Design the sequence.
């Protein structure tokens, strides 16, 4: 994957888009750090969707009982939710 600093990417944006459309993702850095990757719309829609969401990971962690040990030592107290809660 070719990498461009943001100022060069701005000047060569059409070239980056053409390369992305040809199936070559293009990385853009900002302040020397990875910032974004330009990919074609087709590549974006074809990306794997098998990675779990954060919610799924937390639910899996909770089902395994991993939260139970931590709950007893939490530094906060429960309070009611809703407009009447204070």
Sequence:
């Amino acid at each position: 994957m070719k990498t461009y600093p943001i100022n060069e990417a701005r000047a060569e944006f059409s070239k980056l888009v053409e390369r992305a459309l040809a199936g070559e993702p293009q990385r853009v850095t900002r302040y020397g750090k990875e910032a974004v990757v330009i990919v074609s719309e087709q590549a974006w829609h074809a990306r794997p969707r098998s990675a779990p969401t954060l919610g799924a990971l937390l639910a899996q962690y909770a089902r395994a009982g991993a939260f139970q040990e931590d709950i007893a030592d939490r530094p906060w107290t429960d309070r009611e939710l809703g407009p009447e809660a204070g």
